[in-house]
Specification:
97 residues, alpha+beta, four-stranded antiparallel β-barrel, 15% helix, 34% strand, globular
């Protein structure tokens, strides 16, 4: 089972940056102020659930340039895999948007 349902990266009220499990799908405007379960780890090593909770102060972007570059590299193969699709291959990844 996955360590989360809807992973977010956020700044908590204590000023620290965390990953958290948002759980249910909610509007982006409703995320600040919600209390979420903290998830530890990273993209490379994986994530682990914790019992810790934190209140979301501000939602943050992707973790780091290094992780974004890995995401871009992974998504750059989409053109190869989607060559049979009736649409043009992507020109950029979501991480670079």
């Amino acid at each position: 089972m996955a360590a989360f349902e809807r992973l977010i990266r956020f700044e908590a009220e204590d000023g620290k940056t965390y990953y958290g499990d948002l759980g249910a799908e909610v509007s982006t405007r409703e995320i600040p102020g919600r209390v979420v379960k903290v998830v530890t780890g990273d993209v490379e090593s994986g994530f682990t659930k914790t019992d810790q909770e934190a209140k979301v102060s501000k939602v943050q972007n992707s973790p780091s340039n290094e992780t974004q570059n890995e995401t871009k590299t992974t998504s750059s193969t989409n053109g190869i895999h989607s060559s049979s699709a009736p649409c043009p291959p992507p020109t950029s990844s979501c991480a670079s948007a």
